[in-house]
Specification:
This protein is mainly beta. The protein is built from one helix and 20 strands. Strands 3, 4, 5, 6, 7, 8, 9, 10, 11, 12 and 13 form an eleven-stranded mixed beta sheet that branches. The N and C termini lie far apart (about 65 Å).
Length: about 270
């Protein structure tokens, strides 16, 4: 019987029959269900830590479809994909919403565990067949202390503290930017407060300026539109004032992501 080679994410190659391959694919589709995340993020290397794990579920009651993503913190993790902690995102059934968080290099993750210095996490969202959704935050009690978990909707400009109100209702239309949300964490152990950052980002007359008066070594700077397209990227920035000419782009909202030391953060700016 003909054989099919499957490359697993561990790097191993398995040779299985076509009938077995069909059975395996059928099982994977069954597990995908209505589009939910089917991975636990620990991959058998590190036991799942119940602390500092936020689960977000985008749910549409009109057709009972949903998508889950998990954002969490562990100082043994890095800010990029970790086999020991993270899970890559794979879409579920057709018609279900798509939602995932991204790393600084824009890797798409359904489970994203980061070191504590990562205070702002971009979350991408794309509608399914439905148009009205509820973002449901669970496991917020795993974040001990008096900090905040702020969900920022980049399309409406709305912010909501998910520790105070776990449900956020929103509408989504075809063609909406996929960079829909940022989740801001502050006030928890190891997560820096926003005002402690020595770098300021602002925009004026189609110039995005990054003010770095202390001359901190910036690892990289990138600018994206709300569809996730990268418009600018520079590494090893030493300028105390970096001015970026955006005269060739349309007026609108753009996201500036800055990494320095062990920290990364994202700022939304208006270019007009």
């Amino acid at each position: 019987m003909p054989e099919t080679n499957w490359i697993m994410k561990t790097g191993y190659c398995l040779s299985i029959s076509r009938n077995a391959a069909v059975l395996l694919v059928s099982l994977m589709i069954a597990l995908a269900g209505s589009g939910q995340n089917t991975t636990n993020g620990s991959n058998g290397k590190h036991p799942a830590d119940p602390n500092f794990r936020l689960k977000l579920t985008a749910y549409a009651s009109s057709d009972n479809t949903y998508q889950e993503t998990v954002i969490g913190f562990d100082n043994n993790a890095t800010d990029e994909y970790d086999l020991n902690f993270d899970s890559h995102f794979f879409p579920g059934i057709a018609g279900a919403p798509v939602m995932y968080s991204v790393t600084p290099s824009l890797a798409q993750l359904s489970t994203n565990i980061m070191p504590f210095h990562m205070a702002s996490v971009p979350v991408y969202f794309q509608k399914g067949n439905a148009s009205d959704y509820t973002m449901i935050a669970t496991n917020v009690e795993s974040f001990a202390g008096d900090g905040s978990i702020i969900l920022e909707d980049l399309i409406t400009g709305t912010t909501q503290d998910l520790r105070l109100d776990h449900d956020y209702n929103f509408a989504s239309a075809s063609g909406d930017p996929i960079w829909r949300f940022i989740v801001h964490f502050s006030g928890f152990t190891g997560v820096p407060e926003k005002q402690d950052r020595p770098i300021t980002v602002f925009s004026r007359e189609k110039i995005i300026s990054i003010l770095n008066p202390e001359g901190i070594k910036i690892r990289d700077v990138s600018i994206h539109d709300l569809h996730g397209k990268e418009l600018f990227h520079r590494v090893k920035v030493k300028d105390k004032l970096l001015k970026i000419d955006m005269s060739s782009i349309q007026t609108g909202y753009y996201m500036v992501r800055i990494s320095f030391g062990r920290e990364s953060f994202t700022r939304k700016v208006v270019v007009n």
